[in-house]
Amino acid sequence: MTVSIKSAEDIAGMRVAGQLAAELLDYITPFVKPGVTTNELDRLCHDYQVNVQHSIPAPLNYAPGGHTPYPKSICTSVNQQVCHGVPGDRLLKNGDIINIDVTVIKNGWHGDSSRMYCVGNVAPHAKRLCEITWQAMWHGIEQVRPDATLGDVGHAIQVFAEAQGYNIVREFCGHGIGRRFHEEPQVLHYGRPGTGLRLQPGMIFTIEPMINAGKRDIRQMGDGWTIVTKDRSLSAQWEHTIVVTDTGYEVLTVSAATPAPPAFVTDKHASLA
Ligand code: MF3
Ligand code: CO
Ligand code: CO
Predict the structure, then answer these.
(1) Distance 203 CA to ligand 3 centre (A)
(2) 16 contacts 106 by C-beta, under 8 angstroms
């Protein structure tokens, strides 16, 4: 396994791409309302990237081995859709939860991030799934520092999510990212402490747990892309792009409206000061 170490200059490029991904998620937020179609969200994001950001939507025509080219610029995964939901003429309705996953290319560098959005008034159990999944991502992020392992990251996510009664999807994982969309390493969202790749400053990867309210099993829809829960339970996902620093981590996919880290993370950082 060859995991690239990014230079300070590379990281500066990734910071720009990461910020643009986060700003795109900020931009689309007020449009996520009952009655909008996922196609409309796709068109808005595409146009904002091309006309305002001058960034390239990485998903559009992306065709990793064995897949038909992805036909849209963003992924929109609603309710029981786990990931890679393909935008279409589906109308969002009051009570839906939706993950919007964007990946921008700027000056050759990729920034990859996703968030959950609530459409109108969402039931408490669905809101809780979104909230716990966000916290689970952060439990993984806070493990990141030189000499920690990817097993530490996966384990932290898994034990937290399972303690809440949820289940981690195993078939999809985070990934190295840089000049290419998906690079080594694979970042599993489950695992055992002290196992797997040992982290070094300059490694860049995503953490993007997919967590199901029901069983962890999934299946793929006939469109060749959309992944859904087998038992039709709700699923949620959040994603950040992270760089390993000399002392810990830096989140690259940050903008003005990115949700601030949870208290259990900020408290720890405060205690170091
Ligand atoms: N953005 C997704 C990820 O986090 C990948 C989407 S691939 C696509 O890795 F082709 F579906 F866009
Ligand atoms: Co990703
Ligand atoms: Co993504």
Answers:
(1) 17
(2) yes
Secondary structure of residue 154 in the 3-state scheme: helix
- What is the residue extent of each domain of the chain? 8-272
CA of 123 to the centre of ligand 3 (A): 25
CATH (residue range 8-272): 3.90.230.10
Q: Which atom of ligand 1 is nearest to the CA of 239?
A: 4
Using CB distances shorter than 6 Å, the residues near ligand 1 are 59, 62, 70, 75, 84, 101, 103, 112, 175, 206, 208, 225, 239
66 CA from centroid of ligand 3 (Å) = 19
Total length of the chain? 273
Mean pLDDT of the chain: 97
Do the beta carbons of residue 78 and residue 90 sit within 8 Å? yes
Specify burial of residue 248 (Cβ count, 10 A radius: 0-12, 13-18, 19+): middle
**Residue carrying the six token digits 């993370």:** 265
Best of 181, 184, 210, 241 to mutate for ligand 1, by most ligand atoms within 8 A of CB? 181
Mean pLDDT across 117-131? 98
Per-residue pLDDT at 273 exceeds 60:
no
Residue 272: per-residue pLDDT: 62
Q: What is the DSSP letter of 149?
A: B
